[in-house]
């Protein structure tokens, strides 16, 4: 029996900001920690595709691009369900009455496209054992921080963000859900040398979406006609997606995501951090970043 779509559910959304626990030193919602044994034991299939990111790094955008590719540019097919239903978020648990990401994934016929924010060391081992393809998207830390802050403000299941200054410090300390951005991107950057991981940059996708979509097509071993590529480019533009109720998270009730505080799809630009960082914060961030990213060949652009 198929699971209900989230947008069709009539439930009492008594939402509280999540308590935080830890799995191997990584902060995660306590409800996820309590179910960790089930998440770790998740059985991937060889034809699964996993979309992995640190939160607020272009996840939904990448999901929409991949869904459009898989549906050969058929926008109506891509509106068959919300992002949440089309690509189960394997570790996510909203509340006990609602199907978990695991349950949604397990009920889904193959081939499945799944989503995670887990750092590389917490990915269920079956993904590596089955040699699954993984698309990882990374966004520069400064813009990622700003976007994550606004997401905490509007997503009433996330921990209380506190002030901008407090959130800034927590980000540097790796104390936010899914842990340190620095460790996350470095871990996945290293994994691409051993596994089937396509590592993409948000900034490259903004600069030249056609080139980056062609990389995804090549990785997925898929060809599309020129007109289909044009449709994918059109319908995955920020402004178009912002108006798509199946992608913009307005399918969730305001008790979970309050878009009047800040829309889920807020700006989608490179360089918005300049509107938030003080001179002192920028200096502190750069100094901290230099230490934490020393010894890696991974480089980011903070403006285009």
UniProtKB/TrEMBL annotation:
InterPro entries: P-loop_NTPase, Sulfotransferase_dom. It comes from the Eukaryota. Its EC number is 2.8.2.-. One of its GO terms (molecular function) is sulfotransferase activity. It is found in: Cytoplasm. It is an enzyme of class 2 (transferase). Keywords: Cytoplasm, Transferase. Residues 46-296 form the Sulfotransferase domain. GO terms for cellular component: cytoplasm. Pfam families: Sulfotransfer_1 (PF00685). SUPFAM superfamilies: P-loop containing nucleoside triphosphate hydrolases. Belongs to the sulfotransferase 1 family. This is Sulfotransferase. It comes from Python bivittatus (Burmese python).
């Amino acid at each position: 029996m198929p699971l209900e779509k989230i947008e069709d559910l009539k439930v009492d959304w008594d939402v509280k900001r999540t308590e935080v626990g830890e799995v191997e030193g990584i902060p995660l919602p306590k409800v996820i920690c309590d179910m960790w044994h089930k998440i770790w034991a998740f059985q991937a299939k060889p034809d699964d595709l996993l979309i992995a990111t640190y939160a607020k790094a272009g996840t939904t955008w990448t999901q929409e691009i991949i869904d459009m590719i898989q549906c050969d540019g058929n926008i109506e097919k891509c509106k068959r369900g919300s992002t949440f239903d089309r690509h189960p978020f394997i570790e996510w648990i909203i509340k006990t009455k609602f199907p978990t990401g695991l349950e949604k994934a397990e009920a889904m016929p193959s081939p499945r496209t799944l989503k995670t924010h887990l750092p590389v060391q917490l990915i269920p081992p079956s993904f590596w054992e089955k040699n699954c393809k993984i698309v990882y998207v990374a966004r520069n830390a400064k813009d990622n921080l700003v976007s994550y802050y606004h997401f905490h403000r509007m997503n009433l299941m996330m921990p209380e963000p506190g002030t901008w200054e407090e959130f800034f410090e927590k980000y540097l300390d790796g104390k936010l859900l899914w842990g340190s951005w620095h460790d996350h991107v470095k871990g996945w950057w290293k994994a691409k040398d051993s596994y089937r991981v396509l590592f993409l940059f948000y900034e490259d996708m903004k600069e030249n979406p056609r080139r980056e979509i062609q990389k995804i097509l090549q990785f997925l071993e898929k060809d599309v006609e020129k007109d289909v590529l044009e449709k994918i480019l059109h319908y995955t533009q920020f402004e178009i997606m912002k108006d798509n109720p199946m992608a913009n998270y307005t399918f969730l009730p305001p008790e979970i995501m309050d878009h009047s505080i800040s829309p889920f799809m807020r700006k989608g630009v490179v360089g918005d951090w300049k509107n938030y960082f003080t001179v002192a914060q920028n200096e502190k961030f750069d100094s901290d970043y230099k230490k934490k990213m020393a010894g890696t060949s991974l480089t980011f652009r903070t403006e285009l």
